[in-house]
Amino acid sequence: MAKNKMRLQIITPMKTILDEEVDSVILSTTEGEMGILYDHEPVVVLLGYKTLSYTQDEVKKYATTLGGFAEITKDKIVVLTDASEFADEIDLERAKRAKERAEKRLSDSNMDHLRAEIALKKAIARINLKESK
């Protein structure tokens, strides 16, 4: 591994989404955004339903993180998440329909509100990433 680089792995239950050397990472945790550089203190953080960004050879890249955890060590970040996507993989119209369905479920008192809230957060994360890129 090159000096002052870290290995970033994004892993879902289905597959490894990313396994590459990066210069820096910004995670969206449940406590706020967290910037990570080489030689970071070890920590485990809880991830929100947002966007992760990383810099690789001076190019900034983005992916959604739909919940999960990140384990950070001196030279490695392992993200374990339910799902992760890059902007070019997101179907914007499908994400908008999912958002509408989740909002409708939240307004229905007979529906599972926790499940609807999670679906809404996932849809918003996808929409935000797709529309910003």
CATH first level of the largest domain: which class?
Mainly Beta
CATH homologous superfamily title of the largest domain? F0F1 ATP synthase delta/epsilon subunit, N-terminal
Distance between the termini: 29 Å
Shape: elongated
What does this structure look like?
It is a single chain. The chain has 133 residues and is α+β, with helices and mostly antiparallel strands. The chain has helices spanning 92-107, 113-132, and strands at 6-11, 16-22, 24-29, 32-36, 43-46, 49-56, 59-66, 69-73, 76-80. The chain has two domains: 6-80, ATP Synthase, domain 1 (Sandwich); 91-132, Single alpha-helices involved in coiled-coils or other helix-helix interfaces (Up-down Bundle), CATH 1.20.5.440. The protein has two helices and nine strands. The strands form two sheets. It has a five-stranded mixed β-sheet, with no helix packed on it. It has a four-stranded antiparallel β-sheet with strand order 4-3-6-7. Helix 1 (92-107) packs antiparallel against helix 2 (113-132). The two termini are 29 Å apart.
